[in-house]
Amino acid sequence: MAAIASGTDNGRAIRVAAVLLVTALTAAAAQISVPLPFTPVPLTLQPMIVLLGGVALGSSLGMSSQILYLALGVIGLPVFAASPLLPQGLLRLFGPTGGYLLSYPVAAFLAGWLAERGLDRRYLGSVVAMAAGLAVIYLGGIAGLLVFAPGVHAAGFAAILAAAVYPFLALDIVKLFVAAGVMPGLWKLTGLRR
Questions:
Q1: Distance (Å, rounded) from C-alpha 54 to C-alpha 56?
Q2: CB contact set of 135 (below 8 Å; sequence gap of 6+)
Q3: Exposed, middle or buried: residue 189 (CB in 10 Å: 0-12, 13-18, 19+)?
Q4: At 33, is the secondary structure helix, strand, or coil?
Q5: What is the CATH number of the domain that holds 44?
């Protein structure tokens, strides 16, 4: 994105606006939350936004958007998905979804870093960049449940996978394949380059 890459005041304003937009979209995606009876983790649209944001903004700005999202949640703004277990705020990072949430900056950074190397220019490359970021989100979710959900942890690793990965994998793969088509089309349509 030529305007974003420039050092002008206009370029800085565009970068700030882009980070704020992805932060707001992440918060909005959290509000589309479907509780599942067999896991303490709700189904949300956040992973798709996190990955798209990373690919669209690049590593630093993508990560910044997710750090800002977490900061807004930590101070108590209602940006996290609804939870019957924990209120909004810092405690959410120490609950069953904390691992996912904490992985968002890393996932956005990785997807953005791969996109900066040209993987977002073609559909298959976008799939690879976003799949790498999705793997980070799942690893974060697994780690979070290991640490913050002792009941799930006591049931064994298979139970953790059943709570952290299996309920979401098929839909996340579909979302990933849809989202991966956005960036190559956007670059082709606009002619912009990062």
A1: 6
A2: none
A3: exposed
A4: coil
A5: 1.10.1760.20
Collapsing DSSP to helix, strand or coil, 34 comes out as strand
pLDDT band at 193 (very low <50, low <70, confident <90, very high): low
**Residue with tokens 């579909």, as numbered in its chain:** 174
Q: What is the pLDDT of residue 5?
A: 52
Q: Which residues contact 16 (CB under 8 A, 6 or more apart)?
A: none
The answer on pLDDT for 159 being more than 90 is no
State both tokens at 3.
Answer: 């305007």
Residue 135's pLDDT band, with cuts at 50, 70 and 90, is: very high
How many folded domains does the chain comprise?
1
Closest CA to 114 of 48, 66, 51: 51
Average pLDDT, the chain: 89
Strand partners, 43: 34
Per-residue pLDDT at 165: 93
Closest CA to 57 of 101, 102, 104, 21: 21
Query: How far is residue 67's CA from residue 58's CA, in Å, rounded to a whole number?
Result: 14
Domain of residue 168: give its range.
2-190
Q: What is the DSSP letter of 191?
A: -
Of residues 163 and 130, the one with the higher pLDDT is 130
Tokens at 7, concatenated = 């050092």
- Single-letter code of the amino acid located at 137: I
Q: What is the mean pLDDT of residues 175-182?
A: 88
